[in-house]
Structures are given as C-alpha cells and as structure tokens.
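Researcher: I'd like a structural prediction for the single chain below. Treat it as a standalone chain; there are no partners to consider.
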Amino acid sequence: MALTDVKLTVQDSTASRRRALVCEDDQIIRQMIATILEREKFVVDLAPDGEEAIRKLEAHRYQLLVIDLMMPKVSGYDVIKYLKENIPPSLKRIVITTASSSALTNPFPEEVCKVLAKPFEMDEFITFARDCSEDTAARHKKKQNDVPPG
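Model: Treating it as a single chain, here is the predicted structure.
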C-alpha cells in the first residue's frame, strides 16, 4: 500500500465524521467542550472569538456550532447574526452557551437549537449536542413519532 493510500483513508475517515465548531473565549471551557465532542466522535475546530469563528464558518460546514455569547472582538450575537444572513440552515445546529442570566431571556432566532446556561451539566450538554447535530429530517420525524395520535 502506498503512502497516498494511507492519506486517503485518513481523509475519508475524517470526512465521514460530524464536524463541530466551538466558539468560546475561555480556554478551559473551550477545551473541555472540545474533549466532550471528540468523545462523541466529532472532528472539532476551535475559535477563541467570533472573528475567528466567522473565518472558520466561511471555510467549512459544521453539523454542530457551540457559541458563547460574550466574547472579545466579535460577539456570539454577531456570529449568530452572520449565520442568519449568510448560512441560515446553520442556525438549527447552534447550542448557545452563556453565563449571562439576562441573555437567557433575550429572543433568539427560533431556528436556534438550544440555549444553555453556564455552568452546565456535562450530560445535559451531550444530550443537546446530539440533538442539535442530528439531521433535520431525522429530528422532524422523531418529533412526529413523539406526538400521540389525536
């Protein structure tokens, strides 16, 4: 087997995995979330601020976006605005994280998947990450199956 064959195998393996972007200015929280998502078989990209997140969003498509609201340079609010204007289907894959209690009452686009208050429980985050990264059609079918016949 040639070296190029090995490279193709690794690329194919990575390409078939779900990809997540973690946009969080706190390095410890950013790395903790990344570790959790990697255990859930995501390929994880990291952004310490909204400016870097937008650059990554322009270069890649993600099955999950974890966005902190309060960040330097470009805020999470501005990243969400960017997504709404440029990549609206991505909104349904967002888990917003925030330590601001007032942010929890702010209206977000209804397409945003979940809003999670910091500090959060790991199990709760994992559940949200799984739910928000699911294919939209699968989520819709799951909701239909959950509704009792009327």
